[in-house]
Amino acid sequence: MTGQTVDRPFSSSPDAAQVELGARFKGALHHAFLVFLLLLTFFPFFIAILTSFKSFQQLLVNFWLPAFPLQLHNYVIAWNEIYRSIINSSLVSLGAVTGVLLCASLAAYAFARIDFAWRDAAYYLVLSLLMIPGVLTLIGRYLLIVQFGLMNSLWGLILPYIAGGLAFAVFLLTGFFSDLPEELFEAARMDGGTELQMYRLIALPLSRPIMAIVGLLTFLSTWGDYVWPLLVLRSPEKFTLMLGLAKFTGNSQVMFGPLMAGYVIASIPTAIIIVLMMRTFAGAALVGAFK
Amino acid sequence: MSVQTADAGLDSKLWSGRRRALRRNLTAFLFLLPTFLFLAIFMYQPTINVIYHTFFRWDGFTLERFVGFKNYITMVNDPNMHIATRNLGWFFLGWMLQRISPFLVAELVFNLKRERSKYWYRTLFVLPMVVPFLVTIMIWKFIYNPLPTIGVLNRMLGSFGLEEWQTAWLSEPSLVILALLFVGFPWISGLPFMIFYAGLQQIPSEVLDASVMDGCNVWQRMVRIDIPLVITSIQLVAIQTMIGIIQEFAFVLIMTAGGPAKASLVPGLLLFMAAFRGDQMGYGATIGVTMFIAIFILTLLSFRYTTSPFARTRRTRET
């Protein structure tokens, strides 16, 4: 790493002190610039949190600083407005994550560890889907959902989400499964283990970090999607969180406090999940997946 | 697995070998079945259906009349499409720069001396990723609010005494694209930053030490060592960004719905409007297929004129 300092050839020269001072100044500037960037990065979120505790009057009078008393009531209003859509979004994301993990891990196991006819062809058939833009299948999927009678149903979200997440999940998991040591499987085969047993007892337990990554990516993309629910869902009690927020935004022309409170609430589930993942085992693997 | 029988004649061995292969194929088939069912229904079928229907006048349901290449000709001559493509050009330029620029910040953090400060900057810069993208852009809509007392930007200008600069940022045709591009400033938080930083961490420390020994300054090191070594990550980000930008419209739909007038219209939004707000499924499909072709060509080109992003992983796997 660059962390260690290497003695510069001129460090013993007479004006070493001056050089040292220059380096210090440079270091301070370096930090100052990064802190400035951090402040800019956090500024919108800071303003949103600040506003979420204010009434409209307080906002007009005191825009930049916290205003007292804090309007905790804003959070109650926001919660009543969106809690239902949070439940809907949770159901959809849970269904999609489960489906993707189950199907993709089975398929990836077959691609990585079973030597079957036309394996490469089948694999490329899946990978080729990574090239197809989502916007192209949008129309076709919409018609399918209409024909299957899944309009205005959460299944109309879950099933296409599973299909949409599979290609990339199979790609990541196949790479991981084929790097597992063959000896493990050889030993199990000697003991008369079936492929399903090996999948369940060897491959799955060893691949928890990568499964967590795939789960996280699926969760984030389904949780944050706006366009597909907009097409499929009609009645407000079925709305997902993003639709609910959009509706809330449209309804509350001057209620900026409750609105920002809603934004804060909407960020909490993703924050919890990401922090949990980072703290357990996924952090290192997340970096590894993109190297 | 089948247990080998006691009488191991050549014939039965061959037979059991074949049976085992058959069994393996059957097992693999069952493992793959759920995935391919999903893909067949929700990926392959819609794709083929949509490509096929670009040659039809089609409302998605009852009306279906073969028109040959008429949809494509309409698209090429559609003035809305011209506007949308020109706007997309600006978005493309701006968003590409935005997605690559975190590399400089990754370098700045990576060049810090202490591991601890590196860790903290890295964590803090990616922290805003916990906020869903849609929430971020809605907060930016609040920042751009046209009211001089409410809009964060307008209020800021007001407190600096620049009242004459206050404006409705998203309703000004000459400003709207710039305002949209500015969303997310300073554009650091996100996957590109993480990917770039991970790439920098992959550089062998001997290489970096050697560069210090040779008296390489930071700028030289970045240009001569870091960029060539993490070019695969940069390409990965560039290709993914390209694919994302070409089909982007949810962002524009939420911020401005393509307005004012058509000043921020993009092809994806045109597709959305034609297919789901105007009963012109066939025409929407045509725009979708054209985007697909554009993405396909761009991806191929970027593979051809740069080193393959997979070359390095392949090499490491072989050794």
Task: Describe it.
The complex is a heterodimer of chains A (291) and B (319). Helices cover 75% and strands 0% of the residues of chain A. With 291 residues, chain A is mostly helical. Chain A folds into two domains: 1-52, no CATH class; 74-289, MetI-like (MetI-like fold), CATH 1.10.3720.10. Chain A is flat. Chain A starts with 15 loop residues before the first helix and ends with a helix. Chain B has two domains: 10-66, no CATH class; 76-318, MetI-like (MetI-like fold, Orthogonal Bundle). Chain B has helices spanning 10-52, 70-77, 79-100, 102-110, 115-126, 133-143, 152-159, 176-182, 191-201, 205-213, 218-246, 250-255, 267-277, 281-304, 311-318, and strands spanning 56-58, 64-66. Chain B has 319 residues and is mainly α. Helix content of chain B is 68%, strand content 2%. The longest helix of chain B is centred in the N-terminal third of the chain and has 43 residues, at 10-52. Residues 1-6 and 308-319 of chain B have low confidence and may be disordered. Chain B has 15 helices and two strands. Classes of the chains: A mainly alpha (291), B mainly alpha (319).
